[in-house]
Fold this sequence. Notes:
Layout: E1 2-7, E2 12-18, E3 21-24, H1 37-41, H2 43-54, E4 60-61, E5 66-67, E6 77-81, H3 85-90, E7 100-103, E8 109-111, E9 116-118, E10 125-126, E11 129-135, E12 151-159, E13 161-162, H4 163-166, E14 182-184, E15 188-189, E16 202-207, E17 210-216, H5 224-231, E18 242-244, E19 266-271, E20 275-283, H6 284-293
Parallel strand pairs: 6-18, 8-14, 9-20
Antiparallel strand pairs: 1-2, 1-5, 1-15, 2-3, 3-4, 6-7, 10-13, 11-12, 11-18, 12-14, 16-17, 16-19, 19-20
Amino acid sequence: MRFMVARDGQDTALYVVEGEDAYRVTGRGGMDGTDLYGTIAGGPAQTAAAVEAAKSGAPVPAASLSPALPFNRFGKILCLGLNYVDHVKEGGYEIPSYPAMFIRVPSSMMAAGAPMIKPDCSDRLDYEVELMVIIGRGGRHIREEDALGHVFGYTVFNDGSVRDYQRKTHQWTPGKNFDATGSLGPIIVTPDELPAGAAGLKIQSRLNGQVMQDANTSDMMWPVAKTIATVSEFMTLEPGDLIAMGTPPGVGHARTPPVFMFPGDVVEVEIENICTCSNPVVSEADAAKNEAAA
């Protein structure tokens, strides 16, 4: 199944997407949630009920909807760094024996299609295409062989990174948490429609139509199941938590000369059989003007 949270010009609702059609879930069959959380937390029975409710109404063109973030309130947003060998090498790091991890905050997240904000304090905004895992069933000390049963779905993430701020200290938090730099969605695909662990999928980023990153999710050093098991050693995972799986080689700061994103650019990140997430880049000053005028 393929889900999307989106606006139809009046309100925000959860939809089931089939091909070019979107079937509204919210407001049908007693389903009143406006995001994905209720469907996830209710387990497989709630997921099935959401699909049944959606099919009770007529579809609308999916292209007529404006994507929104999948959650009104985020749970944990955990991100892996250095999960592709060639990306580790291009960044000048040693191959790690344990995954590098950092946290993103909700204010850094944004929907597909929304403007990605280049901060006025830096000219080093970089792109990073990543697989994003959405946890469906929580737990602690999850065994690797059981871990994929805890996944609700997968989507695409652009881990927009402000490189000079990322490198100010050994901790990456500042460069990974500027407002509206982490783009997510718009489609969440359940595991039954993908290979186990979303392995073997082409993963790509494009800047103004030019391919910048081109790899395969099978290249990850810590696949999805191993990552969930590793994370659950030290924290309790809960329904709706997100885990970003790291980016492949080809990022802008490692190129000669470096390539960064500027106002007027359009960045696209795509994973085969999941979706494409596209965002225009705007300046912080222009974003503030647009918000004030809204």
